[in-house]
């Protein structure tokens, strides 16, 4: 396989692949490829057309069976905008997720297309900041951000809104000739409704953004207390590998870390301290998305009320 631009591919178990988004690419979130034997499933379709195209090419190279089902774990754009590359397949989401996609994305996509000049200005500012920066790690981070924004901008005018074609309520099972895929709604957490995909024969769980690794989770569209309940649900699955929505392939310890993070966040939110003055606890100080930590404090304070 040629060098991939948007993903790092890892076969976590026979026939089950994690497509881990590169920081400099246009994927912006992780995806999955599952070869059931007589058919192939894609889990989440990334943020850009070119990343979704690469995902499809990967799937066609590493599996010998046609792509039949494509799953949207939740409604956020970095997990569903690649749907247009798979519009000849059956795109599946929970009923609540499809309703949210249909409610938000036509206008949101239109707004983003009309704001493309602002994204270009942002790239210009990132380049200026990189020229002034002396720290090597920060220069690398700014370079990744520039490359990622350029990927998003390059095909944004061409993105089509493609809604899921099939829905389910609590769950559904897809049986292949070799493997089984169990699609389950875990309810509210990261968003109003989040879905996971479990491959029981391989002990692999694709979690979407219910689980993220070494990344501050985005809480604005969810509920931290319901999210903790969702994490409790998925901890009961007998898994050897967990594929998070963001970050590298994880294990049960990463779920425990996220539970600890949210528990500490709730306690910090109860303190009578101005948000900018709250220190990020040491275990999480190096996580990606530092600013998200502070917005999460604000979200939890609102939910506590």
UniProtKB/TrEMBL annotation:
Q: Gene3D superfamilies, from UniProt?
A: Ribonuclease Z/Hydroxyacylglutathione hydrolase-like
Q: What is this protein called in UniProt? A: MBL fold metallo-hydrolase
Organism encoding this protein? Robertmurraya mangrovi
The Metallo-beta-lactamase domain is annotated at: 28-246
Signal sequence extent: none
State the coiled-coil residue ranges.
109-152
**Keyword hit for Cell membrane:** no
Q: Which UniProt keywords apply?
A: Coiled coil
Q: Which InterPro entries match?
A: Metallo-B-lactamas (IPR001279), NDM-1-like (IPR050855), RibonucZ/Hydroxyglut_hydro (IPR036866)
- The organism's place on the tree of life at top rank: Bacteria
Give the Pfam families listed for this entry: Lactamase_B
PANTHER family noted in UniProt: ACYL-COENZYME A THIOESTERASE MBLAC2, METALLO-BETA-LACTAMASE DOMAIN-CONTAINING
Q: Does the keyword Coiled coil apply?
A: yes
């Amino acid at each position: 396989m040629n060098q991939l631009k948007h993903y790092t591919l890892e076969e976590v178990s026979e026939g089950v692949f994690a497509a881990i988004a590169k920081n400099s690419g246009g994927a912006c979130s992780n995806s999955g490829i599952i070869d059931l034997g007589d058919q192939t499933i894609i889990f989440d379709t990334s943020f850009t057309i070119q990343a979704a195209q690469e995902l499809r090419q990967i799937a066609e190279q590493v599996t010998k069976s046609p792509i039949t089902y494509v799953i949207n774990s939740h409604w956020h754009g970095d997990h569903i905008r690649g749907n247009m590359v798979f519009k000849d397949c059956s795109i599946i989401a929970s009923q609540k997720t499809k309703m949210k996609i249909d409610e938000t994305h036509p206008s949101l996509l239109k707004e983003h297309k009309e704001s493309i000049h602002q994204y270009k200005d942002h790239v210009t500012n990132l380049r200026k900041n990189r020229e002034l920066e002396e720290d090597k790690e920060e220069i690398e981070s700014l370079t990744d951000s520039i490359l990622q924004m350029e990927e998003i901008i390059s095909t944004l005018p061409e993105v089509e809104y493609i809604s899921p074609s099939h829905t389910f309520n609590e769950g559904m099972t897809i049986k292949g000739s070799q493997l089984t895929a169990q699609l389950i709604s875990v309810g509210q957490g990261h968003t109003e409704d989040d879905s996971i995909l479990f491959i029981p024969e391989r002990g692999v769980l694709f979690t979407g953004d219910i689980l993220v690794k070494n990344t501050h989770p985005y809480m604005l569209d969810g509920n931290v207390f319901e999210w903790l309940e969702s994490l409790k649900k998925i901890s009961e699955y007998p898994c050897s590998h967990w594929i998070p929505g963001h970050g590298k392939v994880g294990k049960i310890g990463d779920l425990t870390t996220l539970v600890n993070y949210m528990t500490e966040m709730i306690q910090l939110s109860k303190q009578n301290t101005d948000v900018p003055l709250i220190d990020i606890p040491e275990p999480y100080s190096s996580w990606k998305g530092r600013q998200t930590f502070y917005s999460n404090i604000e979200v939890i304070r609102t939910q506590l009320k």
